[in-house]
Amino acid sequence: MKFPQLARKKACYTPTRFGCVVFLFAIFLTSVVFVLTVHSFLTVNRTVEANILVVEGWTPDYATEAAVAEFTSKPYDFILVPGTPIDKGSFLVDFKNMAEVCKQTMLRLGIPEEKVIALPMPQVRKDRTYASACYVMKWLLENNVPVKGINLVTLDCHGRRSRLLYHKVFRSGCQVGVISVADERYNPSRWWSNSSGVRTVIDELVAWLYAMFLFNG
């Protein structure tokens, strides 16, 4: 009895030297395009007609200043500031939550107290931006505030992911715009030359891919 064959010979194409050069050049060109465009892709600046301004409480003071300038330049009704507990230094200050710290900063910058609403959140270990959007929606519903639209102030390349997650919460209930304040830790046009830029861009790209394709809120 003839033993059945376990393998058989087949023709296989392999790239020529010229083919290898073309393939490597395509990889190089794709990498260059990625490096030059990924930051601007993640950093969205697109406002809508809105009466509610939301400021992410973890953002630095210069982002808070940008939010105050935005609020005073347009007819917003409220600034909502969701924020989690302070990670370090909470024993040295009167405020234990970033929402309260951001609110007090805005009051110092001249915003009337009745216009700024702090939304203190518990510590969130996962999906912090989505949880913030849920707190914003909860406050708006509980206080029967009519919403024409929401503009969200966040930091740099966090913008695209923040807008996506707020869209997931509010769905078709209202339009959501975003203002991405430039991160002063690095030059956005040369983010790859700074360790903070590299970490931020890669982290935000991975997080956006997760929110876009895997997250089900």
Tell me the layout of helices and strands:
Blueprint: H1 17-42, E1 52-55, H2 61-73, E2 78-83, H3 98-108, E3 116-120, H4 128-142, E4 149-155, H5 159-170, E5 175-181, H6 195-213
Parallel strand pairs: 1-2, 1-4, 2-3, 4-5
Helix pairs in contact: 4-5, 5-6
Report what the structure shows.
The chain is an alpha/beta fold and 217 residues long. It has a single domain (41-213), classed as 3-Layer(aba) Sandwich (Rossmann fold), CATH 3.40.50. Helices cover 44% and strands 13% of the residues. The chain contains six helices and five strands; from the N terminus they run H-E-H-E-H-E-H-E-H-E-H. The protein has a five-stranded parallel β-sheet with strand order 3-2-1-4-5, with helices on both faces. The longest helix has 26 residues, at 17-42. The chain is elongated. The mean pLDDT is 93.
Features:
Rossmann fold, alpha/beta, 217 residues
